[in-house]
Known about the structure:
The protein is of the alpha/beta class. It contains 17 helices and 21 strands.
Amino acid sequence: MKKIRNTKIIATIGPTSSTFEMIEALFNAGADAFRLNFSHGTHVEQQHSYNNIRQVEKISGHPICVIADLQGPKLRIGKFNTDKIHLSKGQHFRLDLDATLGNEHRVNLPHPEIFVALQLETELLLDDGRVHLRVEQHGVDFADTVVLTECELSNRKGVNVPNVILPLSSLTGKDKIDLDYALKMGVDWIALSFVQRPEDIIEIKRLVGNNVHVMSKLEKPTAIDHLAEIIEISDGIMVARGDLGVECPPENVPILQKRIIRLANEAGKPVVVATQMLESMIHASSPTRAEASDVATAVYEGADAVMLSAETANGKYPIDAVTIMNRIIGRVECDEQYKIIRNASRPVPNDTTDAISAAARQVANTLAVGAIITYTSSGSTTLRAARERPDVPILCLTTNVIVARQMAIVWGSYAVVTSDDIHSFSEMVTVAIHVAKDQGFANWKEQIVIIAGVPFGKQGTTNILRIAVIEEP
């Protein structure tokens, strides 16, 4: 199942894509990883999807990554005494803790944390930004606002509070239950929603331990104020453009996307671009040209992976969506301009591991080798090799199936689980030659570059580079 493509594809599982047959079809169409969205569905349904993914993995013989995406705090207003109300520009409207049904003058907002954090002139966004309110007075249990845009408002619409750090944990009670279930199920990544500050990642990392990687979803503008620290302590980053696009002016989102990708690339952390990438394909069999350009832009900018959400979860054309995304990525990566951009934005080595990885890329380019082989127990060697964005594939060899699955969303990587630990340098070379040949990365008499760390099995010790020739046994 060798896929000659560097940028990976993540497909979200949902009602139209949870069967074994559909997951297998999505994988064969190009999906490298699957997202289980814990905002929807029951644990039984998530387990069913997970089992089907692992069955596809077993049949394909290739590690498949599973990401559990936690819902995070969902701030919503209460209900009205009618289906919806009309708000006029300039009128006054109150939000409060009164649980009675609302009307055109007030509605319940059952989140006292919001009232505590409010300041005068704070803007509140309701219904994905369609309703704009500005706070004129507030207390511990109310906020009197003025309506900035004429609109209609209906029951249980979401609330966003831009540029305000709310005294809320990223993990709700529901999230903790979902997290425990996801960990027992055996997922490879946890995507954490509503990240506002580095402490949010520290909190979840205490719960998940070392076997599961944490991906911080950047959807709050307040997180951008701590971007460097969040990237440093996260295992991966997701540019969640849905809520980010609600709380930020639309013209800022492309700039933030580019900045986040660049900093994640420099740190050697996988970065995923998500939300509305091929949105029209929920109902249409082909994307708009603007959507195709959006996917291409993420690839040009250096994303490790691009993600499909509703397109594969409940859209009418899930396989077509993965297929066209696969085609867009492949076309961009063949473009000479893509290579120019990639070479111009390559980060400067910071330590021994980076220096070895940079040398491996240079040797691979000079000798036109078949692949760069990374030996890794934690994935760190593969991540540093991917940070260099080499011209040849990165073949990740590991004895840990969890690590192999986690690397499935990393740019340019192709993971293979080896059966035995490597105890000597000569064994390492022998296994690398065998796997490279067996997996179709190099033919007889061709060369490969091997990078690893000694002593074997010790994390963060990449200190060896070896050139080997594929020879007859």
